[in-house]
Write a structure and sequence with these properties.
Elements (H helix, E strand, L loop, with lengths): L15 E5 L3 E5 L4 E6 L6 H14 L8 E4 L4 E4 L6 H5 L2 H5 L3 H20 L2 E2 L8 E3 L5 E3 L5 E3 L5 E3 L19 H17 L13 H9 L12 H8 L6 H18 L1
Antiparallel strand pairs: 1-2, 2-3, 3-5, 4-5, 6-9, 7-8, 9-10
Helix pairs in contact: 4-5, 4-8, 5-7
Length: 261
């Protein structure tokens, strides 16, 4: 089946497109603001409404991308000029600039973001280094909230997001919870520490069944010599009762590295 070619278009105020996802473009409005809008005008609008509801529930937090509201064009968001953590790691000159403390700090900030959203009854459902953005100080901000949120009245908002294969906790259904976010965090920490995703020899789409089989059988990538490997293993093995415990261990590792430097 041939893929559909989706032409780029520019809503009012968008100067250029700086990113895109499966159903949206990210357009630059100014040096502080971007617009997330449908790849095809008018499509998937419910996802943008749900994402706005989740951002509203989360409010302001240093580890969460700021949202400035939804209008007829799309969702106005903070511009994270440092790009994604994944893109940073895949740029050799940028990656070489990272110290051990930098990597642990990113892992701790990523865990802080997830621990926070869980206190707000939000499950992200797509934790990945491509959804961790970097601000001007190269601090992490979590983005792309199309997961699950239950408000105080018990109303469920579900954007039907789902982790990719290398971040996916094998489970009987595709239902997501704190445990699946925690498992995906393990894969994100692994990528930050090592520089590439788990199982680089496997393709996320073509080898999806093999990846799931390995995870089901507890066949994780080797962690010998990996900084913070014990934290990654605890995430993958679901040892932590909550993400806050992961934050505390990463903070301890960060403090140790700072004192030793």
């Amino acid at each position: 089946m041939e893929g559909r070619i989706v032409p780029i278009y520019f809503p009012k105020g968008v100067g250029k497109v700086i990113g895109f996802g499966s159903s949206s473009f990210i357009g630059l409005l100014d040096d502080r603001t971007v617009l997330k809008y449908p790849r095809t005008a008018g499509e998937h609008w419910n996802r943008f409404f749900i994402e706005q509801q989740i951002y509203n529930a989360l409010g302001s937090h240093p580890r969460i991308l700021a949202c400035y509201g939804l209008d007829e064009r799309g969702l106005k968001l903070e511009y994270a000029s440092g790009g994604t953590v994944r893109d940073f790691l895949r740029n050799p000159s940028y990656a070489l600039s990272l110290t051990r403390c930098d990597r642990v700090r990113w892992c701790r900030q990523a865990a802080e973001a997830i621990a926070y959203i869980h206190t707000k009854n939000v499950i992200h459902c797509d934790i990945s280094t491509r959804n961790f953005l970097l601000d001007t100080k190269l601090d992490i901000k979590l983005s792309d909230f199309q997961g699950v949120y239950v408000d105080h009245d018990g109303v469920l908002f579900n954007g039907h997001a789902l982790e990719s294969a290398k971040s996916y906790l094998p489970r009987p259904s595709t239902g997501s919870d704190e445990r699946s976010d925690l498992f995906a965090l393990g894969s994100a920490i692994y990528e930050i520490m090592v520089g590439h995703e788990p199982f680089p020899e496997l393709d996320e789409l073509d080898d999806e069944e093999e990846i799931e089989k390995r995870y089901l059988n507890g066949q994780f990538p080797a962690l010998n010599g990996v900084l913070g490997g014990y934290v990654i293993q605890k995430c993958w093995s679901l040892v932590y009762d909550h993400v806050k415990a992961c934050v505390e261990e990463l903070q301890g590792l960060e403090d140790y590295l700072i004192q030793a430097s």
